[in-house]
Amino acid sequence: MIRKIFLVGNPNVGKSVVFSRLTGVHVISSNYPGTTVEIAKGYLLTGGEKIEVVDLPGAYSLEPNSSAEKVMFSLLNELPKSDIAVINILDATNLERNLLLTLQLIEEGFGVIVCLNMCDEAGHKGVSIDIKKLEEQLSVPVIPTCAVTGLGIKPLIERLKEVVPRSRQRLNHEDRWKEIGLIVEKVQRLEHRHHNLREILEDASVRPVTGLLMASGVIYACFKVVRFIGEGIINNITDPVFFNYYRPLLERISVHWQEGGFWFHLLIGDLINSKIDFKQSLGLLTTAPYIEFGMVLPYVVSFYFILSLLEDIGYLPRLAILLDNLLHKLGLHGFAIIPVLLGFGCNVPGILSTRILESKRERFIASTLISIGVPCVPLQAMIFGLLGAFGGFYVAGVYAVLFFLVVIIGVILNHTVAGYSPEFLLEIPPYRYPPMLTLIKKLYFRVKGFIFEAVPVVMIGVLVINILLYFRLFDLVTNISAPVIKGLFGLPKEAIIALLIGFFRKDVAVGMLAPLALTAKQLFIAATLLAVSFPCVATFAVLWKELGFKDLAKAALIMILASIIVGSTLNFLILR
Amino acid sequence: MSRVSLAHIKANQKCRIVEINGGLNLRQRLMSMGVYEGKEVVKLSHIGLRGPVVIKSGRSVLALGHGMAAKIIVEA
Questions:
Q1: What is the pLDDT of residue B1?
Q2: Other C-beta atoms within 10 Å of A427: how many?
Q3: Closest chain A residue to B37, measured at CA
Q4: What is the full DSSP assignment across B36-72?
Q5: Mean pLDDT along residues A282-289
Q6: Chain-chain contact of B52 with A334 (C-beta, under 8 angstroms)
Q7: Alpha-carbon distance A532 to nearest alpha carbon in chain B (angstroms)
Q8: A347-395 pLDDT, tens per residue?
Q9: What ipTM goes with this model?
Q10: What residues contact A467, with CB distance under 8 A and at least 6 apart?
Q11: Contact (CB, 8 A) for A168 and A139
């Protein structure tokens, strides 16, 4: 009687796609190893039964060499072997390497069913596998699938009942590879194909000169396209809606409240030139929805669209190779670029995905650098929206300051933090055409996640701020902190409110700066400080969970020091 | 036939691995990814002077850190 199903396989063979197909639970999948850093659970309904399905992080072998493999090892041994079924997912384009884990699973006495995934791609690449012969060789059921389209999932579920533990002679690694060589020779036929354009591009992207050229081109193009799509949505969709429909509506409603009264202040905020100004009014019905839907959401959509595209094509591991040298100087290795890129969307998934890095030291350095120097999309969108009005030069300046800060802090941490940073060992996946349906789905879930997590916080945040402002409860804080804010950073003392709110939401915090009529220099400093100083509360919670209290305290100390140094340096030396 | 490390041979060269000068953990990690003594691999590229080395082993492409590549002795 099977009580639990485990999905086991090498990294990047499509376990998460199979998982989504079996359980209907959506999990993020991409074309690089290590997308799954958390163990996902769901249920498969079959024949009136409900069986738990567990999606495990990818592993190359059953020996617990990496932390992901250790997790897999202990979970697999929790229940008696007769109670579980292992769906071993294989990449049909790379049968040889995948079979190592398969043989180990069968030898260990697990009930195994083999799901030979990516059969369509294998066909395109001239790889044909004789399924019957492979079943004979392994003596377990083998089902060819293409999980992205759903092909083969039904037979996979139907044949789950055939799963029983088999016995197979235990081999050592060398003999196992020999055995695999023999099996592959019997079941696989390769058709020689000429190099096609995709393979030429694959090669070029991992060579020094062509690789760097491609990387610069790709990064530049992504940046341009993110801006193009983001601005396109703002100019053609959200702004017209806000200004042509929403504002007239608000103006008609607002006559019911007395201007300057409590409710007017709370809901509409202040009138600027006796008109509602979405950027400066700071009301619950004016600025709050405009920040989230009119300024940030368009960029969330465009950023995640491009990021998902890069993930699914399989470009990111290649970027990791090229950046390995630089990241080594910061005590990290190339693969750390993936948490960094995710962090540009939102620091929370960025810091969660530092789990793909192996040592505690690397995870500490990466998490600290992300929370200091990687501004999330909401913050970036607001910086573009407000600082961009003074010219692109200032916006580029913020990025430059953050980049140098990351390099400097990284080098210092690399020389002072104890522990080891293991070397780079990464499988580079082939380029794949992004499966459009899964890409759109992934985008949908990421955008939905943003709306459900951000909007309530923003609404409550603006509500609380407005009440505090109305009853002038900020005055005490403002006056106490004035020497630092005014003296050290050259900002008006009211800017402390924005910096404090940065702990809630970075986008609202930048929004709070809008009515202060800051100069370009002041806005530059305030925006940089918001990026460098404490991350928002959600990021803080994840840092605590991932690093523990002691390392969180260290990271926080670094953030405070960095903010003070950067803020005052910018104020006194650079932007005089 | 000369014995050099994977970090030192030129790109686009085919070679056979003869020795992995690493601890058990490294040997096992490489072994489970299909890189073991006796295996034929092709070095695809080398990024910068002390950067990672990219190899093709069977049907997979792997990137190894420079230090790791220096521990893999090959016959070319």
A1: 66
A2: 22
A3: A174
A4: -TT-EEEEEEE-TTTS-EEEEETTEEEEE-HHHHHTE
A5: 92
A6: yes
A7: 30
A8: 999 999 998 888 899 999 999 999 999 999 999 999 999 999 998 899 9
A9: 0.94
A10: A266
A11: yes
pLDDT score, position A39? 82
Report the DSSP beta bridge partners of residue B60.
Answer: B57
From residue A396, give the alpha-carbon distance in Å to each of A89, A304, A377, A410, A528.
45, 21, 15, 21, 11
- Of A62-71, A136-145, A154-163, A302-311, the one with minimum mean pLDDT is A62-71
CB-closest option in B46, B47, B63 to A428:
B63
What count of CB pairs under 8 Å joins A to B? Answer: 106
**In this structure, are residues A379 and A507 in contact, taking their beta carbons and an 8 Å threshold?**
yes
Q: Is the pTM of this model over 0.95?
A: no
Residue A200, CB half-sphere, CA atoms under 13 Å: how many? 4
Cβ–Cβ gap A96/B34 under 8 Å: yes
**Segment A148-159, tens digit of pLDDT:** 889 999 999 999
The model's confidence at residue A228, banded by pLDDT at 50, 70 and 90, is very high
- Tokens 């260290």, located at residue: A554
- Residues of B within 8 A of A172 (CB-CB) are none
Question: What residue in A sits closest to B67 (Cα-Cα)?
Answer: A423
Q: Mark yes or no for CB contact B50/A203 under 8 Å.
A: no
CA distance A187 to A132: 9
Query: Is the Cβ–Cβ distance between A370 and A343 less than 8 Å?
Result: yes
Whether the predicted pLDDT of A404 surpasses 80: yes
Are residues A425 and B64, on separate chains, in Cβ contact within 8 Å? yes
Cα atoms found within 13 Å of the Cα of residue A485, Cβ hemisphere only: 19
